[in-house]
Specification:
homodimer; 8-stranded mixed beta sheet
Chain lengths: ~325, ~325
C-alpha cells in the first residue's frame, strides 16, 4: 500500500470558525499538496521525495505557518525550521533559524544528502544553502499581511503566540501581490490566525517510510527560540521497522516528550499498533501537562493515522487502499 | 544513595598515550569536578544543582572541549552548545551555537528557569544571556593554544575533526596566561588532542535525577553545525522513573539514535536494567554503524554506569554506597 498523510497545523479551531470561502481555500490547498505527494508515490517515487514535495507545496502556500506564510519573530523577521528523515536508514537532515530560504524542507534535504551533519543553524546554514544553490527570497516574499498584523498585536501585548492561538479580527483586505509560483488565494481570503506548522509522512511502493516537517515557529518568538520541528525524534521521525511521524503543536512539550520517537519506541518495545501508540503519547502523556497538538503518522504497512488532542488540525490523506480525505475540525 | 558520574569526552585514547604529567592533570581535573558535585549532594543539594556545578567546573578547565577549552570553528571562533534536564518533572533547558558565554550549562539553566522555552540558539540566546546577566568573556579567555593548532591543522587539511580524533604532535609551550578562576594547569602540559564534550549525571538524597552536557563541538565545524549535546533526548535526558544520561561521541549518530531517550525507553518499556539498556544502545545499535562514543548514566536507585564503545573515556564517579573512581582508558 502506498500512503500519504499531511498536516497544516493543529490548535484551537472551533467548528465553523472559518467562513465558506476560507474553508474552501484551506481544503483546496491541503488536497493539492496531498495529490502532489500521492501522485509522486503512484508514479514510483520514494517516500522521501513525496514528503519533500508535499511539504514544499505547503511552504509555498501563504495559508500555513511555514515557508512563505511563516509568522513574524519579535524582530519582525522570519526564522524558519525544518527537518526530514528517511526510514530506510534513518538518515536525517534539519535546519533551524534560517532566514530568506524559500523551501527550508529542501535545505534540510541538502543537509542530509550533501553534508556529514544532521542539524545546521542560522547564518551557517544559510551559507551552506548558498553553496548548494538553494532558492532565497527577500522579505516581500514572506510578508503576509495577516502574519504582520498577528506580530504587531502579539508584540504590543508582549506575548509569544502559538501559530494556532486565539482568533484575531478579520484581516483587512490587502493588495500585496501573490509571489510567483504561489497559490492564487488572495490574502483577504485568509482566515483568522489559526494556521500551523506543516508536515507529511509517506509509505512508498518499496515499503520505505519518510517524514518531513517545516515551520515558522511561534509569532513574536525571540531569543532564537527553536521548537520541536527541526529536532529528529521530537517533531519528526521515520524508521521503516515502525513508523514515520510528523508533529505539530506546542513545541516545548513535544521536545520534552520526544514525541515522534516515543511513538516508535512504544511500537518497537511494547509491540503496540501505531494508533494505540499515538493515543498514549497524545492523550495519556501530553494532554495532562497541557501539551496541545497533533501529528500525522504511517506504519510499515501503510496505515495512516491523523490524531490530535486540540480542537482541530488541518489535515489530508490518501492511500492506495482507497482511503482519502481532507478535514479541519475535530 | 547519592551518586554522581561525569565524563570529559570519549574517543581514541590509546593506553599510555598520555605522559605521566598529562594523565595526572586530567585525573586531578576529573576528581575535582566530581568532588564539587558530590560535596553538593552530600550537603543536601539537588541533583540539578550538582550536575550544573560539576559541568561548570569542567567548562572552566581548559583541558576539556567545553567552555574555556572549546575547539575552534571553521571561522576561528567558538560556538558552544549545552543542555540540562531535571528528572522530577522533565524540565529542560538548552542553548546552541552561543559565543562568548563562559558557562553555557548555566545559560541552559537560565533558559529552563526563566523562559517558557527549551532551546535557544545563536545571537538570540546571547541576548537572553545578557538580559539575565550571564557571564561573558572575550576571545582571549577561550584561546587555548592546542585548540588553535588543531584548528589550523584541520582547516589546512580541509576536514572537520572530532574533538577526540587522532593525535597531534606535542604542543609547543605557550605563555598564554590562565584566565582568572581557571585551573592553573599550564597549556604546555596539555596532552595531544584527545579531549571531549563534558557531562554529568546525579541522584540526590530526595531521589531526584538530573543530567547536564556541554561542548564546543567539532574542530573546524562550520555551517552552524549542531550536535547531540543541546538536544534533549539525544545527548541529555533525565527522568526520575528511569535514568539520567549524558552522552559524548560522534554527535550525528547520537542524534539519529536519540541515544539518551532510547536508554530510558528500553528501561521503561522493556523493563531492562540501566547497564543492559546502555549496552544495547552503545554496542548493538551504535557500534555497527560507526557511532563512536560513550555516556554516563544513573538509575533511580543511584547505580552509576560509565560505558563507552571507543578506546577510552575521561570519567569519574562517586556514590554514597562506597563506589569511587577516576579513569581514562578502556
Amino acid at each position: 500500500m502506498i500512503s500519504i498523510a499531511l498536516h497544516g497545523g493543529a490548535g484551537t479551531i472551533p467548528r465553523h470558525s472559518l467562513d465558506a470561502v476560507q474553508e474552501a481555500a484551506y481544503r483546496a490547498a491541503l488536497a493539492e499538496a496531498r495529490d502532489i505527494g500521492f501522485g509522486l508515490l503512484a508514479s514510483g517515487a520514494t517516500a522521501l521525495d513525496a514528503v519533500e514535495a508535499t511539504v514544499r507545496a505547503l511552504e509555498d502556500c501563504p495559508l500555513f505557518n511555514a515557508g512563505r506564510g511563516a509568522v513574524f519573530t519579535h524582530e519582525g523577521i522570519h526564522e524558519l525550521d525544518a527537518s526530514l528523515m528517511r526510514g530506510q536508514d534513518r538518515a536525517t537532515g534539519a535546519v533551524a533559524g534560517v532566514r530568506g530560504v524559500v523551501n527550508p524542507v529542501s535545505l534540510a534535504r541538502l543537509v542530509m544528502d550533501h553534508s556529514e551533519h544532521v542539524l545546521l543553524m542560522g547564518a551557517g546554514a544559510e551559507e551552506f544553502a548558498r553553496l548548494h544553490n538553494a532558492a532565497f527570497a527577500g522579505p516581500e516574499y514572506f510578508f503576509v499581511e495577516l502574519r504582520h498584523r498577528q506580530w504587531i498585536e502579539a508584540r504590543t501585548a508582549g506575548r509569544v503566540q502559538l501559530d494556532h492561538s486565539a482568533p484575531l479580527d478579520e484581516p483587512e483586505p490587502t493588495d500585496v501581490p501573490p509571489a510567483v509560483g504561489a497559490p492564487t488565494i488572495r490574502l483577504n481570503e485568509l482566515p483568522n490566525g489559526k494556521m500551523g506548522t506543516v508536515g507529511a509522512v509517506a509509505r512508498d511502493q518499496f515499503g520505505h517510510l519518510a517524514a518531513a516537517t517545516s515551520t515558522g515557529g511561534m509569532t513574536n518568538k525571540r531569543w532564537g527560540r527553536v521548537g520541536d520541528t527541526p529536532l529528529p525524534g521530537a517533531g519528526t521521525w521515520a524508521d521503516d521497522r515502525t513508523c514515520a511521524v510528523s508533529c505539530t503543536g506546542h513545541g516545548e512539550f513535544f521536545i520534552r516528550g520526544v514525541v515522534a520517537y516515543d511513538i516508535a519506541c512504544l511500537m518497537e518495545y511494547r509491540n503496540l499498533p501505531l494508533a494505540e501508540a499515538c493515543r498514549i503519547v497524545l492523550f495519556d502523556k501530553l494532554l495532562p501537562v497541557g501539551g496541545e497538538g497533533g501529528l500525522v503518522a504511517v506504519d510499515a504497512a501503510g496505515n495512516v493515522v491523523l490524531p490530535f488532542n486540540s480542537e482541530g488540525m488541518y489535515r489530508a490523506w490518501k492511500t492506495s487502499g482507497g482511503e482519502e480525505g481532507v478535514a479541519i475540525y475535530g
